[in-house]
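Changelog-adjacent note: as of this version, every example in the card shows the full chain rather than a window. The one below runs 103 residues end to end.
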Amino acid sequence: MKLVMDYMNNHYNRPLSLDEISNVACFQKEYFCHFFKKNMGKTYLEYLNEIRLSHVYKDLISTDLPLKTILENNGFTNYKLFRQLFYENFHTTPGEYRKTHSS
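Full-length structure tokens:
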């Protein structure tokens, strides 16, 4: 799992397909999904999105980059999905978070 986790942490900012990550783990993708969920308690995609969200979270207060650029830099391509995930995890919108946490 360490190899998979390291790979995800080093490549989160670009499209990272299930085929690609299952090849890194040397598993068929169906088995990889089962193995990952059993060992991590969440799906591969849930975990990948958590990594991406943590980077977006930091970038919102540490940079003045537009939200669109931050999303692209951190591997998100679907704004609607991103906004939903952000709200579910942080109970606020990205814009509100930036307003209340920037100096």
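Structural remarks: Residues 68 and 79 are 8 Å apart (CA to CA).
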